[in-house]
């Protein structure tokens, strides 16, 4: 039984979605497992095993993560114009798996990092850009398919530190890196075996088929996506603090006592992917009911609402810090923060990824999705600049600033509601 075309209600499905979405979901989950598993060990490996200085280690870590979100721009163009999405995923996954296994050999450390980043450039934009092809125009399931896909990111991110991190710390760093490589191979095998459930690819764009007229034809769409990307860059200036300054606050500003036991600060970082997994099913059910009733929320409005919810999460921390007068906050407030924060994240980030894929011009899907990851790259840089204010201002004021940044992003996204609707031919809601 194969499913080689866009899904319809009469065709076989898994969990109410096209079978191909499960294939892409599982492929992505194992890729994220390998990425976050390696990343969880990277700084410790450099400082404890390679005996690199903290400053040098931080520079290498930052350069690697930045490249991981920059190479997809080049990889997306290569996929659209030369390789095709499927071949790009297979080649990219193979290169990444090789890079992870190379991490087990100390002399190949820098070569391994470069190899993983290069493979990621082909893999990252080519996989999610295939989701859109699973659905016919107007299929309401497409609007929340990226939320389902997003769960795969967080399952992999949740399991990786527990498995790769434990193996690396307890049995040796190379065992952890090896586990990350095995995870990447599992994702590759799933993708190769599940290709019969994916729709056929559109013809690739030849080099001579990209004249200036194509820019003129899609100029309005490109400008709208650029505006969305700039708004998301502003948003990520606040969003990315959860792994930076918010983690510092967990160490110094949160009372982590649970009876006679102190909760490890790193455990709180697992709350975000865990809550993504728990919140996504009821949220999708809620959106489905709204879509069935003809009250589906427009993408830009949904993203704006998500930014406002994240602003509320940071405002909560500001109020907790301000009312505490310098005393450590109860850890339950921190759990509540992550619940609100994750809810907002589910409204904005998967929706944005889906919007870029849906509005991609014909035969430029991977390139357009790659532009979404460029927004993550620029947003991460803006978050670094914002994070420099942590030691220069009071914590309550800093959290209030993050709330203000998220509100600014929400306003920008809300202003883009009509422009997004005007360039989205598949939008059928009110």
TrEMBL record:
PROSITE patterns: MFS (PS50850), PTR2_1 (PS01022), PTR2_2 (PS01023). Its main location: membrane. It comes from the Bacteria. GO terms for cellular component: plasma membrane. Residues 20-421 form the Major facilitator superfamily (MFS) profile domain. CDD domains: MFS_DtpA_like. Keywords: Cell membrane, Membrane, Peptide transport, Protein transport, Transmembrane, Transmembrane helix, Transport. This is Peptide MFS transporter. Belongs to the major facilitator superfamily. Proton-dependent oligopeptide transporter (POT/PTR) (TC 2.A.17) family. InterPro entries: Dipep/tripep_permease, MFS_dom, MFS_trans_sf, MFS_Transporters, POT_fam, PTR2_symporter_CS. It is found in: Cell membrane; Membrane. The keyword Transmembrane applies.
């Amino acid at each position: 039984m194969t499913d080689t075309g866009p899904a319809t209600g009469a065709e076989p499905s898994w969990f109410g979605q096209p079978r191909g979405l499960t294939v892409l979901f599982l492929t992505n989950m194992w890729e994220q497992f390998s990425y976050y598993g390696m990343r969880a060990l990277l700084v410790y490996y450099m400082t404890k095993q390679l005996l690199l200085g903290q400053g040098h280690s931080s520079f290498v870590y930052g350069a690697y993560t930045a490249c991981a979100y920059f190479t997809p721009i080049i990889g997306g163009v290569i996929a659209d114009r030369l390789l095709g999405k499927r071949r790009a995923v297979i080649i990219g996954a193979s290169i990444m798996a090789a890079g992870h296994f190379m991490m087990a050999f100390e002399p190949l450390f820098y070569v391994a990092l470069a190899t993983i980043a290069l493979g990621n450039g082909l893999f990252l934009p080519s996989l999610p850009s295939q989701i859109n092809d699973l659905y016919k125009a107007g299929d309401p399931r497409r609007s929340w398919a990226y939320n389902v896909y997003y769960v795969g990111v967080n399952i992999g991110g949740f399991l990786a530190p527990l498995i790769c991190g434990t193996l690396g710390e307890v049995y040796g760093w190379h065992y952890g890196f090896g586990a990350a490589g095995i995870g990447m191979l599992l994702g590759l095998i799933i993708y190769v075996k599940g290709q019969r459930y994916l729709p056929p690819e559109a013809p690739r764009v030849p080099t001579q088929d990209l004249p200036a007229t194509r820019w003129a034809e899609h100029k309005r769409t490109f400008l709208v996506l650029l505006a969305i990307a700039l708004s998301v860059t502003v948003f990520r200036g606040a969003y990315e603090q959860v792994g930076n300054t918010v983690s510092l606050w967990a160490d110094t500003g949160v009372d982590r006592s649970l009876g006679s036991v102190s909760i490890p600060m790193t455990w709180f970082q697992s709350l975000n992917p865990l809550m993504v997994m728990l919140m996504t099913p009821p949220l999708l059910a809620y959106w489905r009911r709204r879509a069935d009733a003809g009250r589906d929320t427009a993408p830009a409005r949904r993203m704006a609402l998500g930014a406002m919810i994240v602003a509320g999460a940071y405002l909560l921390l500001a109020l907790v810090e301000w009312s505490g007068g310098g005393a450590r906050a109860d850890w339950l407030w921190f759990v509540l923060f992550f619940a609100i924060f994750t809810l907002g994240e589910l409204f904005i980030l998967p929706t944005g990824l889906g919007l870029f894929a849906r509005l991609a011009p014909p035969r430029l899907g991977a390139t357009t999705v790659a532009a979404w990851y460029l927004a993550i790259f620029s947003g991460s840089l803006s978050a670094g600049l914002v994070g420099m204010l942590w030691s220069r201002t009071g914590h309550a004021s800093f959290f209030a600033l993050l709330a203000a940044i998220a509100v600014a992003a929400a306003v920008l996204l809300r202003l883009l509601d009509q422009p997004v609707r005007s360039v989205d031919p598949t939008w059928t809601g009110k």
